Amino acid sequence: MPTTEKKYDWLLKNFDSLEKSLNGESKSPIHAMRKHALARFVELGFPTAHNEEWRFTNITPIRNTQFHPTLHFADEGITKSRVEPLFVTDAKSIRLVFINGHFAKNLSNTPPSIKQMKIGSLASALQSGDPTANQYLARYASVETSAFVALNTAFMQDGAFVQIEDGIALDDPIECLYLTASSGRPLISNPRNLFVVGKNSRATIVESYVALDENACLDNVVSEIIVGENSVVEHDKLEMEGENTYHVGTIQIHQMAGSNYTNNVISLGGKIVRNNITVVLADQNAESTLNGLSLGTGDQLIDSHTTIDHTMPNCTSHELYKSILDGRAKGVFNGKIFVRQDAQKTDAKQTNKTLLLSDDATINTKPQLEIFADDVKCTHGATVGQLDEEQVFYLRSRGISERSARDILTFAFASDVVERVHSDSLRERLRQFIQHRLEEGRNTRI
Amino acid sequence: MLAINNLHAKVGDKEILKGINLSVNAGEVHAIMGPNGSGKSTLAGVLAGRESYQVSKGEVLYKGKNLIEMAPEDRAREGLFLAFQYPVEIPGVSNNYFLKAGLNEIRKARGQDPLDAVEFLQLVKEKINVLHIDQSLLNRPVNEGFSGGEKKRNEIFQMAVLEPTLAILDETDSGLDIDALRIVADGVNKLRSKDNAILVVTHYQRLLNYIVPDFVHVLVNGRIVKSGGKELALELEERGYDWVTDLAEAVHN
């Protein structure tokens, strides 16, 4: 058996190359962070089923592949006209495009930086010594317990950087489009996003992930979000990568007093998809909403792990996660809610619903509530089921074909998550994607 | 229009319909009455194509076609309509959306062009006034949160929009107060014409005060034991079902 160090030789070599390309920057505190994260990753290694957090999520194909990062930006021949149809919000949006984790300036559409608002690439923010970037980067997403965060941190170079000062209401969404395109050998992309929103502000962030080819790829993303006092942030994530993409997404949210954060995660593509979403309600009267919708078919595995950490009194959290699984698809849901001793008057509600469309699809669902305060309201519920045949019959009895009846009902199951997305154009696109996916799933079933 | 010959049907191993004979012509209204558990709803379900019932013997001809072999949606497209005893709630599907989808399938089968959203809305507005349905109800998910009376009115509203040639009303009167009963009956009566037929399945006579039948059949233990005119309903109301139940035993033994 190879020693851990040997096992990750390929990664260490890539890290050496990264280091050599950094010149002066290799002495920076950011690089010290990278080195520590690499060491931590090598210690932790990719998780196995022995790890409780990965019990139902077999990532052997990830463990057995040597993925190589792209250390410099290359446009991979991707043109504006190829990218245009991939955007999911309307043309007024601010748009940031990334190719293999690196900012593609020519494909993006960003407003000029002003003092109150910086929207652009993390790499340039770090280069210019941006104090906010330096203050908050890797502050909340810990490399100590997560191998994937450690791996991302070890190779973090670029991603979205958004800083919104106090009292700014941004009406148009900030859409971040992450593309992967590999030249053949397995690729790892490590986008690193940092969104810092000040007090009394409002913003909508949309992340969307698309693979431009069917080559093996590990998209290992970390997003850190700080929501300032009384600010309102909606954060939508749309994952629709290819059949050979492994997607591991970590979202770490830190909410200040009176803030309101909504996260909608829609997972449609990928071979293995794992989302780790952690919200820390760090001060009073904050409200957090986590919604998720997964559509799995074929051999897809879609895993959603969420943690809502109520640390202070009078906070509210709502969670609705839904899965529609077909073929031999596997779903995993793990929803942790912590209510710390100080978090009196917490109101937390969690719901997980799964619709199984085939005999071979499976779901493992686990609500996990740990409550240390005594004056709280916490509810959770999980259901797993199939389409209601009485509903199918009702629709058919009005002239609707069985096929359409099943599609209508499946779509309806998905719709209450989709309807929670505020952007009209994004919601409409989501409806189209889901409709399309249901048709695809049905065609493979017949 | 409808010819039922020696129809036997079961749920699992239990035989519920034990040889039904019934003939319904265009322009007629037939009432099927009977005590609880006599097989009334089973008959309605078999005719609409509910899959939990297996037809073990006999045949049903509808417009000369073998109805039993047709899928439920094909029956609807041929003009058959079932008003459900327990209308189903369908969260996430708006009433209008689903009804427009159904109507356009039926129009397609009739060789008519589909209605667009505007034309459909016009049709809805026409029909809605008759049934005193609040229009906002129609933008809500199918039957979700509707009261019992609203659900039944919604059934008749759907019937008014789909304009079936054979409508089967399965205990449409159950759970309705007298005002709602009148509204529902008005809706049904508006549909009556020489070209279509209605089968009213009911336990009580009172609906038949408003929807006056041409024929009344009494179903007991899976068989029609007595048929007659509208006065038979009144006789049943007066004498109860025991009288015909005894009759059924006498006939059978």
Question: Describe it for me?
Answer:
The complex is a heterodimer of chains A (446) and B (253). Chain A is of the alpha/beta class. Chain A has a domain at 4-283. Helix content of chain A is 24%, strand content 37%. Chain A has eleven helices and 21 strands. Chain A has helices at residues 4-7, 9-21, 29-44, 60-63, 80-83, 122-127, 131-136, 147-154, 389-396, 402-418, 424-445; strands at residues 68-69, 94-99, 102-103, 117-121, 160-164, 174-180, 187-189, 192-197, 202-211, 217-227, 232-239, 245-255, 260-267, 272-281, 287-296, 301-310, 316-325, 330-339, 347-356, 362-371, 377-385. In chain A, the strands form two sheets. In chain A, strands 1, 4, 5, 7, 8, 10, 12, 14, 16, 18 and 20 form an eleven-stranded mixed sheet that branches. In chain A, helix 3 runs antiparallel to helix 8 (147-154) and helix 10 (402-418) packs antiparallel against helix 11. The termini of chain A are far apart. The model of chain A has no long low-confidence stretch (mean pLDDT 94). Chain B is α/β, with parallel strands linked by helices. Chain B has one domain: 3-Layer(aba) Sandwich (Rossmann fold). Chain B has helices at 40-48, 72-77, 95-109, 117-131, 135-139, 148-162, 178-191, 207-210, 231-239, 242-252; strands spanning 2-11, 14-24, 29-33, 54-62, 65-66, 80-83, 90-94, 141-142, 166-170, 197-202, 215-220, 223-228. In chain B, the strands form three sheets. A six-stranded mixed sheet of chain B has the order 6-9-10-3-11-12, with helices on both faces. A four-stranded antiparallel sheet of chain B has the order 2-1-4-5, covered by helices on one side. Chain B has a two-stranded antiparallel sheet with strand order 7-8. In chain B, helix 7 (178-191) links the parallel strand 9 (166-170) and strand 10 (197-202). In chain B, helix 6 (148-162) packs parallel to helix 7. The two termini of chain B are 33 Å apart. Classes of the chains: A alpha/beta (446), B alpha/beta (253). The interface between A and B is medium-sized, with 23 and 31 residues.
